[in-house]
Amino acid sequence: MNRKLGYRDIHNLCKEHRIDNYRIGKDGLVSVNGDVYLHDKKLITIPINFKEVSGSFYCSDNQLISLKGCPKYIGEDFDCNSNSLISLEGCPETVEGSFNCSYNKLISLEHSPKNTLGLYCNNNKIRSFNHFPRKIEGDLNCSYNEISSFENCPEYIEGTLYCNGNKIANFDGLPEFFEQEIFLDDNPLEEIYLLFCDFRCIYWIREFGVIQGDEVVRDRLEEVYHTLGMDIPNNITLKEYILV
Predict the structure, then answer these.
(1) How does pLDDT run across 197-214, given as a tens digit for each residue?
(2) What predicted TM-score, i.e. pTM, was given to this entire model?
(3) What is the rounded distance in angstroms from the CA atom of residue 124 to the CA atom of residue 95?
């Protein structure tokens, strides 16, 4: 909201948007005990200035160009997917549940919360893992962006890592002992992972320095097979790398 609203204006907006169990502070900020549903209302901006929401906050499927007015604290999930956001400025500082900003026009996760239960930022234009939360206690879906490296990847990911449709060519940057399920469809790196289909290969591929730029060192690749107790295929052919 760009103009300062009076108590009656704020009260009417809460009723219009079917927000229950709310309290309007002296500063005009609204606190809600429960969920807020503002999805699919053709909104360009958040119509109310919120302080905190104990439940989930849904503002997806609108035409939002800004998150100004969002609560600083959300007790459960935050969902702003399918809008026209180019920045997360104004988004909540603390989200106790999952954070969903997929299907926007973001090039960065700057201003996102430091920790989330799960993070869904797929189908944007994000270029790197800079500004990602350091700890994700759930799934991370960063598919269909423009990420070219795992550098600055979150230090801890408890759930599955979905990284389809990016430009990643090596495992450098993943947590050292990464053991989660990972999806790499439509990345150069996919064909290396498919040689093993076993997350254990990630550690040893890095340990032995198998991938060197656009080259894969055959002797080192075979050493990974030996270490994992796997048979070496008779014919290894690669499309995205040069086998040397």
Answers:
(1) 999 999 999 999 999 999
(2) 0.92
(3) 20
